[in-house]
Structures are given as structure tokens and as C-alpha cells.
């Protein structure tokens, strides 16, 4: 730890970035709590925890991002060992780049992921996305020095292998893609599992956190997750009534609107696609 490190930055304070231009820098590291950091690279957020026995780093993001990520870890906690890399889920835009982290911070560092991630990653054979060495089904708690880091599987949501990290002492969580702070779902929700998504959000809210770091966008709190539940419920209700009126998918995408959420991230570009994704689930589900 460098002198002054503990005292200076508060939640949300930017510690470092690329070259200072008027626009947002490509990357930044934000201190969330003592030894708990969010690393942002462009639109993606990673999360890392500094313990007295080394670092646990979630989501390398990409080989290019991981290069910066490794340098930021080294800057924040010089000389610390990387003890584990954890994939929130297997999607390449969050999980690629582990080899770069390993090369920079420790070649033998184990990769941890949910059990459902292993076979698809192996089958894909992407050298930028090496398969996990350690997997779990329901819950795994990592103990490094003074910290416990819980990994929870909440069921299917945005993918079938999504884990959530919880630091029980700090009451901080890290959740990716199935929830965000006032952002709608990605495009046509193609990878989402319904109705499991609703259950996963309820289970997320049942975890004991106060602050939650998301894989995209700003840091949130419990209310952020409550609003996510509200959004997906309102989306389901609105699309359900479109289906009951006999609207086609195209008509629903054209006409369904949820003005309450129009200031949310992604609404302008993806909301009609969210409608399509929900429509497909509801129609498929009805046909069963
Ligand atoms: Zn994803």
C-alpha cells in the first residue's frame, strides 16, 4: 500500500485514466472501498479485490483491456500476487484476455468460473479465452488472507453460467449483464433465459449488499436492483398486453413504449429489440 492510498479517494473518485482529453478516457480505476476496485475499459467494467495474500481479478474483458488492467493492478497494489482470475460468465466481451493477465501477473494463476462455462469454453477453443481450472455449482467462497469472497450462482439469467461476487464484510456485490444501474437489457435479449431472469434478480436482491458494481455503467445500490426487477416486470406486462391484443412482433416493437425508462442506458437504441425478445419468450411460452 502506498502512503495516502487509504485516505484520499472516495467512492466514485477517478484514480487514473488514459491521456486527459475532454471526453471520457479509455480506462479508469475507481476505488469502491478499501482494497475493492472497479476497473473500467471503455464500456466494460471489471472488478478486483486486494487482500493481504494477493489479488482476485474478475473479467479480463479483452487482451487489450487486460494489458491495462494488469498495469492498473500493479499500480494500485505494487508487487502483489495475482491469486485468481474469475469469469463472471463466458461471453467473450467480458472473459477474454486471461492469458494477458497471467503473463503479466502470474502464469499459474487459476481461472474460476461456474460449471456451465467449462464445456462451451473448451469447445470454442479460443486462445484468448482459456477454460476455467476450478468450477462450482452453487456457491464457492474464496479465502485469501483477511478477506472472504463469495461466488454465488443464482440460476440462469443473461446466460446459464452467470456468477455474482459478494464481499460479505464490505457488503459489496459485482454483477454483470443481467442487471445494471438504470440500463435496459442488451439488444433483443437473445442470450437471456426467462422466466429465470426474474428469479435471478430476486436472488440477487436477497444477497446482503449495499453497493453493487455492474459489468456496464455506473455503480449502484439495492434500489438499482429493485428498479431492474420493475423494468423487466413492466416490459413483460406491456408486451403481454400487446400479444393479447393480437399485435404481431413487428407491431409490438413499433408501438410498445415504456416512457418511465426512456432516460435509461440503451433505451433509445435497444428498447424495441427488448420488446422483440420479450415477445418471443411470451409467444413461445404460450405455445407450450
Ligand atoms: Zn454477456
What are the key terms here?
288 residues, binds zinc ion, 6-stranded mixed β-sheet, 8-stranded mixed β-sheet, alpha/beta, 34% helix, Metallo-beta-lactamase, Chain A
Would you write up a description of this structure?
The chain has 288 residues and is an alpha/beta fold. The chain has a domain at 14-177: Ribonuclease Z/Hydroxyacylglutathione hydrolase-like (Metallo-beta-lactamase, Chain A), CATH 3.60.15. The chain contains eight helices and 14 strands. The protein has helices at residues 63-76, 92-95, 98-105, 115-124, 196-206, 222-244, 249-255, 267-287; strands spanning 14-17, 27-33, 36-41, 44-51, 54-58, 82-86, 111-114, 134-136, 139-144, 147-153, 163-167, 172-175, 211-214, 220-221. Strands 1-2-3-4-5-6-7-8 form an eight-stranded mixed sheet. It has a six-stranded mixed sheet with strand order 9-10-11-12-13-14. Helix 6 (222-244) packs across helix 8 (267-287). It is elongated, with a radius of gyration of 19 Å. The N and C termini lie far apart (58 Å). Residues 89, 91, 94, 158-159, 177 line the site of zinc ion.
List strands and helices in order, with pairings.
Elements: E1 14-17, E2 27-33, E3 36-41, E4 44-51, E5 54-58, H1 63-76, E6 82-86, H2 92-95, H3 98-105, E7 111-114, H4 115-124, E8 134-136, E9 139-144, E10 147-153, E11 163-167, E12 172-175, H5 196-206, E13 211-214, E14 220-221, H6 222-244, H7 249-255, H8 267-287
Parallel strand pairs: 5-6, 6-7, 7-8, 12-13
Antiparallel strand pairs: 1-2, 2-3, 3-4, 4-5, 9-10, 10-11, 11-12, 13-14
Helix pairs in contact: 1-3, 5-6, 6-8, 7-8
Residues 89, 91, 94, 158-159, 177 line the site of zinc ion (ZN).
